[in-house]
Amino acid sequence: MTVATAPSPLVTGTPPGGPSRRRRVLRRLLPLGPALVLLALFLAGPILWSVYIAFTNETLTGSASVNSRFVGLDNFVRLFGDPNFINSFLLTFVFVVGSAVIGQNTLGLIIALLQRGRGRVTRSVVNGVVIAAWVMPEIVAAACWYSFLAEDGTLNTVLGISQEWLYTAPMVAVILANIWRGTAFSMLVYSAALSEVPADLVEAAAVDGAGPARRLLHITLPLIRRSIMANLMLITLQTLASFGLIYALTGGGPGTASQTTPLYMYEQAFRYFEIGYGSAIALVMLVIGALFSLIYLRLIKVEDA
Amino acid sequence: MTRLAARGAAWLALLVIALAFVGPFLWVLVASVQPEATLAATPTLTFSLANFEAVLTWETIILPLINSIVISGATALLTVLVAGLAAYPLSRYQLRYRRPFMLTLLFTTGLPMTAVLVPVYAMFFRFNLYGSVPAMVLFLTASALPFSIWMLKNFMDGVPVSLEEAAWVDGAGWVRSLRTVVGPLMAPGIAVVAIFVFVGQWGNFFAPFVLLDTPDKQPAAVTIYTFFSEYGQVAYGQLAAFSVLYTAPAVVLYVAVNKYLAGSFTFAGSVKG
To answer: Quick count: other Cβ atoms within 10 Å of Cβ A10?
Structure first.
């Protein structure tokens, strides 16, 4: 990590404190209290507890709900031998790579590139429709795509075919819906990044005879590579945990054909009340999320911490 | 000539992209004012507000929207209050563990909250908090805190300490200084964070879906899902009208903070919150 020792915007004067040093320090930390209590009780607490219950046979119904017991690695052994979990894991991978890494990321970059040098009206119209899809609540987005993909819906009417997309190609449907919904974020990130690419550098390359493709590949993209990496990490994190859109569109089906890991976790923990097993799945998701989050922290320079 | 062609091609590509993005929500807008709307995209030249009238009943949309306002509003207010307090020492004093603390907050913003809900649910069940709206608001606040503290601390760094010194000379403690000097000066920042949290919770489906027990406590995010799964096929026009009414506040609030949010996407070199 690049530890930037930026000049801290700190106090020169000192706010009034108590008489003794320890009391002054405590009084200074007092405003942090409510935040620390809430974070401990409702965030850190549950996460730590999930580590504990993932090693028990805790359920909300049946005998194990009264006295759950420690079962060691049983949940994890079951997890990695569970074909439904493996299936959900692979589907999540396909979903993240298809909709975020390839879809949103590439489309966002393309839109941002195309928008450079266009008129204000064009830019605000394109920005407007792309961002509208993003601001919309996820269940509304699902309702939009449900009608768009229906048998006699807009897409089939435009293409002139009859196809039950949500049954024949559920993963394609949820991937398309998620690209539609999430592209705005990448577009905004890349618009901001491209606006900081010095124009004279690109022009100089053009004078030297570099075509548009070479200018993009050898100048623009290397200059914004930090943004690309940071964006990839952030959209991966967002897509990994995506639940509502898929749940409302396909419910994970038909069968388990679009049941990504968050949906499988929901089924186990909240439908079958297998809290111990559900926590083991949650823990796997948290560990993967934490890894990506750490990579993200290493990628960006944190100045103002 | 090639320049002109390239320009035309770029413009055409943008047009196609814009049309592709409009496609999915076009029918929702059209269907909401079509009395006999079905899933089929066959608009007629009729205009009626019958769908809006049909869904504007207490149980269908009014109560859920009130619940959404209460849940999102309480979460947003509590979040800026708690995060604003926490940001003060982080911004004003040289604390030993400040940097690791801030990095931990940033790290936490990346964790999948969907996964955290399993232990939260188990915990709520055990402590008899399942179905409690205040308890859920406390969880939602906690999940919004890392991001909000980070944002508010950066906004607070922008308020010069010299302005506070006058208040200290007058004998004001940090409470009064925060309330009368720093708070008002960073009001736009507080509003941005509050609206951001509000809009986030407005669309949040999973947390109320698993933490609340009865339909009368549910926010619109869950009610519209129930409506969608029960009547989506038969009363599509009404679902569309519901969607429009439920989405409108989020869009209006987004437009209001749009200008301020634009700056937060430049993390190429550094994170400024």
So the answer is: 12
